[in-house]
Design brief:
Elements (H helix, E strand, L loop, with lengths): L7 E11 L2 H12 L8 E2 L2 E7 L6 E9 L2 H10 L4 E2 L2 E4 L2 E6 L17 E8 L3 H11 L3 E8 L4 E8 L2 E8 L15 E8 L3 H10 L3 E2 L3 E2 L6 E6 L7 E5 L8
Parallel strand pairs: 1-3, 4-7, 8-11, 12-16
Antiparallel strand pairs: 1-4, 2-3, 5-6, 6-7, 8-12, 9-10, 10-11, 13-15, 14-15, 15-16
Amino acid sequence: MPVLDQPVVGVSGITVATSDVDSTREAWSRFAGAPEADSLVVGGLVVGVSPARGGPEGLTGVTLSVENVSAFARLLQRRGLRLDGTTLELGGLTWRLAGTTGVHRRRGHDAGDIDGIDHVVVESSDPERAVALYGARLGLDLRLDRTMPRHRMRGLFFRCGQAVLEVITRLDDEGTVRGAPGVPDAFGGLAWRVPDVGVVRDRLMGDGVDVSEVREGRKPGTQVATVHDPELVVPTLLIGAPADGSED
C-alpha cells in the first residue's frame, strides 16, 4: 500500500438535517447568493439537506476529500477505525470520505460571494481524545493547541487542506474542563471565508437575513459577522480580512 502523506486534502461537503427541507434549501441558496438548483453548492462545498425525521436539526455530517479513498479507508481500518463503506464515526460524529474528482472549485468571485469554508467547529469535553482521534487516527495535522482564559475555552486547530477543524473545549473559571469525559462530541458550527464581510452582510440583510454588526475576529487581522438565519439550522459565521485589505 502506498504511503499517504496528509491524505485528507480538504472539506468538500456537509450534511444538515431539518424539519423543513424546502425552507432550509432556500436558506442555503440565499446564503450562497445563487438561485436554487438540484445540486446545492456553497463556497465550493456540496450541501446535502435531509429531513430530521424526529431527530435533532443541525449539522449532521462532514465530507472530507482524500486523494485515494480506498487506500485511505484501509489505512483507517489498520488504525482501528470502523467504516461503513466510506462513512466513519469519530467521537460520536459522522464523517464521510470522497475523492477529489468532481470537487467543486470556484472560478472567480465578487465581493458578495462566499469563497469557501474557513473552519468547522467541533465541541468536545475530552481534548485528549480529540487529539488521538482527529490527529493520530484520522491523520489531521495539529497546528495549534491554545488555551484562551478570556473566552474560557481550549482550542485545538487541525489543518484540513485550506480549512481548519477547530475543536473547542469549554472551561470553567478555574480552567477545568466543563462536562464529563466520554460524552460524544458535537458539531458546533461553520465559519465561511468571504472577500468582504461588510459586502456579504449587506447582501444578506437585503434579502431579509439578520446579520450582526461587523467586528474584529479572534484571529488577528480578520473581521467577522454572525449570520442569524434559523432556517440554515447551523450556527454560521462570516470571516474575512478588513475592507481595505490590510491584515495588520
